[in-house]
Amino acid sequence: MEEVRRPRGRPRKPVLLQAEPGLARLGLHERAVQRLRGLIVGGELPAGADLVETDLSAALGISRTPLREALKLLAAEGLIELRPNRSPRVTELRSGDVAALFEAIAGIERATAELAARRMSEADLAGLRALQTEMEAHHRAGALAPYFALNHRIHGLIVAGARNAPLKDAHDALHARAELARRRALGRRSRWDESVAEHRAILEALEARDADAAGRLLLEHVTHTGAALLAGLCPPAATDAA
Amino acid sequence: MEEVRRPRGRPRKPVLLQAEPGLARLGLHERAVQRLRGLIVGGELPAGADLVETDLSAALGISRTPLREALKLLAAEGLIELRPNRSPRVTELRSGDVAALFEAIAGIERATAELAARRMSEADLAGLRALQTEMEAHHRAGALAPYFALNHRIHGLIVAGARNAPLKDAHDALHARAELARRRALGRRSRWDESVAEHRAILEALEARDADAAGRLLLEHVTHTGAALLAGLCPPAATDAA
DNA sequence: TTTTCGTGCTCTGCATGCAATTAATGCTAA
DNA sequence: TTAGCATTAATTGCATGCAGAGCACGAAAA
Asked: Which among A66, A77, A5 has a CA at the least distance from the CA of A40?
């Protein structure tokens, strides 16, 4: 009982972190937030895992004080859940949560698309079109991994194109939680063709400065994505955890 | 130099808080968040005020540790700004920020209205109609204060009617920041008639389960509100602080 | 008089220590 | 064997202590 303790919950991962390169001279709590967020959405800290302050602080090489500040912030983002006098736990997404999450993202991205149609510069649009071209090349080549990366960047560019910090912040927070579900979804390939076509239509609406169309198309795109993800999520696991 | 220190920034308010009634046995940091949020949106802690940890913790009757956790959370909400090795400061809203804020709120409320049109129960709608009737009575009577309270409750009911936690959370956070601006706006009476009429139209769209109309009307309503607020905000102060 | 450098103080950032609460464990009794 | 209870270990919540960074003030030089 001395090498690994697991008093309750599921097996604890030996995290082993720190050794940040020359990134930024930020506060420790901020670095801890970024690190932990990456570990959670990356799956290293699986849903339902207990986050024991002592263990985590040792693994991160910091004391409990900045770690606790980081945990509070992650809880505000919805990535973990705090319970009084209990170890925080990585949020376990129920299917209902995922549906709500994509409803919210869809609504927010529609708003950003409408604003972006009016506000994106020609350079922004050129960049977007370049990414679209690249994405279609990967699509033809059947390269799935780069497609996801580009997809992420494209959505990010549209959100940024809205020039609206509150919407961007809200979107980013929700997007991180959505990633939690995305990585568990099966059959992601099924909607690939559709998705690429939808992206093309969205781009064309933006280039036409057609705010209504861009917003509507992006809303539908995200809604479809969420539905497909949910469909790939539900069959294996009934209603909640995998 | 011993009774009140003001080494930099503007005069420091002697806050004098604590003495929470029998509300809830929550963590101190949570209570501090609620207390400080109330003080900020209520104007007791004015925009630009320095929040010195030592003074605040003494005023709240807690130590710096939970206070710092509370400050981090308020910063995530955008109510205060943290600067490295400096006292946090109550966020000073520039007019551009206010415009962006209302764009975001409008987009989010539209999404909630569309969902609420499909999901609100008949009881929900009855409650909403009762509030509308009450609001119109106050309108006829010329009672401005209760109108604002009811306005707040009505918007809250619609957002809650969407049955979407992420949208509600995002909305609440943005709404708190919007309150910051609202209390500084002049000529709020000008749009009173319009606003009541718009609320009636929104209610009717919800009762007709017309999601598109409800969403569009609420979007426009919030947009108009933001524009009116901005108009009452800009003339006195050029671009930023009052 | 204006600018620059030095000095001291205040405040933040982080680490550590202590008390309270909780869950697990083993014992006792029916 | 099982239910109930006391004990014990572990973990959170909070307070405090200490080092470093930054600003203000003042002195000295141009």
From this structure: A77
Rounded CA gap, B213 and B209, in Å? Answer: 9
Q: Tell me if chain B has a CB within 8 Å of the CB of A224.
A: no
Interface list for A 68-97 with B (CB within 8 A): 68-69, 72-73, 76, 78, 84, 97
> Burial of B40 by CB count in 10 Å (0-12 exposed, 13-18 middle, 19+ buried)?
buried
Q: Which nucleotides of C are covered by protein (CB under 7 A)?
A: 10-17, 21-24
- Mean pLDDT for each 10-residue chunk of chain B (242 residues)? 32 40 73 96 92 96 97 96 95 90 98 98 96 94 87 96 97 93 70 91 97 97 92 56 36
Alpha-carbon span B56 to B33, nearest angstrom: 12
DSSP H or E run through B81: strand B80-81
Strands B80-81 and B89-90: antiparallel
By C-alpha distance, which of A223, A242, A231, A196 is closest to A101? A223
Classify residue B205 by burial, with Cβ atoms within 10 Å: 0-12, 13-18, 19+.
buried
Provide the H-helix boundaries in chain A: 28-42, 53-60, 64-77, 95-119, 122-141, 144-161, 165-182, 192-207, 211-233
Interface contact B72-A68, CB threshold 8 A: no
CB A225 within 8 A of CB A194: no
CA-only gyration radius of chain A, Å? 20
Selected residue of B30, B64, B158, B169 to mutate for chain A interface (largest A Cβ count, 10 A): B169
- Picking from B32, B23, B25, the residue whose alpha carbon sits closest to that of residue B70 is B32
